[in-house]
Write a structure and sequence with these properties.
The complex is a heterodimer of chains A (112) and B (114). Chain A is 0% helix and 52% strand. In chain A, a hairpin with a 5-residue loop joins strand 7 (64-68) and strand 8. In chain A, strands 2, 4, 5, 6, 9, 10 and 11 form a seven-stranded mixed sheet that branches. By secondary structure, chain A is mainly beta. Chain B has strands spanning 5-7, 10-14, 19-24, 30-38, 45-50, 56-59, 62-67, 72-77, 86-94, 102-104, 108-113. Classes of the chains: A mainly beta (112), B mainly beta (114). The A-B interface holds A 4, 31, 33, 35, 40-45, 48, 50, 56, 58-59, 90, 97-106 and B 1, 31-32, 34, 42-46, 49, 89, 91, 93, 99-107.
Chain lengths: 112, 114
């Protein structure tokens, strides 16, 4: 039982490049979330998915898109990366909306 | 945007000291208050989920109380140990249209010196 996994662990992009961050959970959770963590800002919700087939914007969705591919997987896409998107990205999942959330190990993204 | 504040921002204590910190959140439209523990280079891990005014939760030497009417929660650590060093996050869940979203505070960074 791996819990929540994220790939890649580290990534460096140039401004304007695109990439997809992958997240998968094996706990049969309905809800999944993407957060970014910046110094002094805490965890901020980018997008979430209440259940398979649904996605909703969080606090800071601009510049991102998401796909809930199936119940296990929830990906985050940066279409045209900007230096302001340099951050650590965490994926999380929960059994029901906003019950205890279980976090992945994070992806450290640097945009030059 | 919901305002969730934690204080102090950081705290240094000696091994064996007891300590506490505060999470303030909106007192209206309350649904739940979460506490997480976040060690350096790891992921946040859940400590407590609190839903009722007056709730008290305990896990080993760590306990938490909740006052939804005045909008605050306290986290207490009794007899701090170096392994308690971490960032402690609280997160507020509102009811109604904010269903599903957790708003996190900025965290309290605790350092316990041997």
């Amino acid at each position: 039982n791996a819990g929540v996994t994220q790939t890649p662990k580290f990534q460096v992009l140039k401004t304007g490049q695109s990439m997809t961050l992958q997240c998968a959970q094996d706990m049969n959770h309905n809800s999944m979330y993407w957060y970014r963590q910046d110094p002094g800002m805490g965890l901020r919700l980018i997008y979430y998915s209440a259940s398979e087939g649904t996605t909703d914007k969080g606090e800071v969705p601009n510049g991102y898109n998401v796909s809930r591919l199936n119940k296990r997987e929830f990906s985050l896409r940066l279409e045209s990366a900007a230096p302001s998107q340099t951050s650590v990205y965490f994926c999380a999942s929960s059994d029901r909306l906003a019950d205890t959330q279980y976090f992945g190990p994070g992806t450290r993204l640097t945009v030059l | 945007i919901l305002n969730v504040e934690q204080s102090p921002q950081s705290l240094h204590v000696q091994e064996g000291d007891s300590t506490n910190f505060t999470c303030s959140f909106p007192s209206s439209n309350f649904y739940a208050l979460h506490w997480y523990r976040w060690e350096t280079a790891k992921s946040p891990e859940a400590l407590f989920v609190m839903t009722l005014n007056g709730d008290e939760k305990k896990k080993g030497r760590i306990s938490a109380t909740l006052n939804t009417k005045e909008g605050y929660s306290y986290l207490y650590i009794k007899g701090s140990q170096p392994e308690d060093s971490a960032t402690y996050l609280c997160a507020f869940r509102a009811g109604g249209t904010s269903y599903g979203k957790l708003t996190f505070g900025q965290g309290t960074i605790l350092t316990v010196h041997p």
